[in-house]
Design brief:
Structural class: alpha/beta
CATH class of the largest domain: Alpha Beta
Strand order of the largest sheet: 8-9-10-7-11-12-13-14
CATH topology of the largest domain: Dihydrodipicolinate Reductase, domain 2
Low-confidence stretches: none
Number of helices: 10
Number of strands: 14
CATH superfamily of the largest domain: Dihydrodipicolinate Reductase, domain 2
Strand content: 15-25%
Distance between the termini: 43 Å
Order of helices and strands: EHEHEHEHEHEHEHHEEEEEEEHH
Bound molecules: nicotinamide-adenine-dinucleotide
Mean pLDDT: 97
Amino acid sequence: MDAVGWGIVGYGWVARDYMAPGIRAAGHRLVAVCDPDPLSRAAAERAGARSHSDLAGLLAEPEVESVYVATPNHLHRGAVEALAAAGKAILCEKPMAATLDDADAIVRAVGDRKIFYGTAFDQRHHPAHRAIRAQVEAGRLGTVTTVRIVYACWLGRDWSEAGQPNWRIDAAQAGGGALMDLAPHGLDLVDFLLGEPIADLAALTQTRAQDYSVDDGALLIGRTAGGALASLHVAYNCPDALPRRRLEIVGTKGMLVAENTMGQTAGGTLLFIDGVTGRSEPQAFDADTSPFAEQVRAFGSALRRPEERTAWSAPRDLHTMRLVARAYGQG
Ligand SMILES: NC(=O)c1ccc[n+]([C@@H]2O[C@H](COP(=O)([O-])OP(=O)(O)OC[C@H]3O[C@@H](n4cnc5c(N)ncnc54)[C@H](O)[C@@H]3O)[C@@H](O)[C@H]2O)c1
């Protein structure tokens, strides 16, 4: 496949540390970025990209075919609307937007112009999670009854990975706290692993250990239309040295346990436990390839082959945003 020319709106932590390496690993090209922050632009130039202080400069780059949006959440909508008007393919970071109204506007903007759009749910592309989905589809777990996910970290008031202000603790920019930031991954992953979304949902949040006002933890429970249950524990108040990234999927014939696969990096472990013997068996998967590299490959492939675009769906991602809103008691 010929290399896709990428642009990036918002060259902060995730763009610099995960997306740009993912673009390189997939054999694509990072052409240009836009970011109002001179330090972020300098980082992009060091990565070989041209840099612009505003979106108009990026849009004027003819080699940019696909654009990855990685600004703080409240700026996703404006970027996506402008990119859609310019006819670019768009991969927008999660959560889709800071509010349900903005997410709805995104779906309309890309739908009206028939833009190839995806929300960057990179966990769908982690090789361990793909292996789990394949085993579920092949029936190895029997009837799947439950998915249990823990996805937590420590996010203090001054947290920053790229020298940026901590917009995550500002409800106006982030749209919420740990639930808004971390739960979309798990909600989407349940849909990916089981082939059906969560339909019913209840949740409780806490503001317990951190000194800011957005939620620093949440527990969510959900059920798919087919009757599978899911639980998600997400948190900003879990010390990073504790076990805090775990995915279990339980069925009538056995279960799979993935540790340290949730997240941006390659690797982690995957174990099958047999429901009759109780014996554990490590499962092999590609532990060297990051979910970001795989996500770039899959998006680029679908850009070139429209028949693959069914794997990406803005209305499906809007459903995930509705679940998040319901978890906050807004839906
Ligand atoms: N999928 C994942 O695992 C993952 C991980 C981290 C972050 N994210 C998401 O990525 C997005 C960015 O998060 P981050 O941690 O990289 O944030 P960050 O604060 O490190 O970076 C954000 C960047 O956006 C820039 N920016 C601000 N206003 C802008 C504008 N108007 N136009 C262009 N750029 C602008 C900032 O200058 C900064 O460089 C968020 O939506 C977040 O939820 C996803």
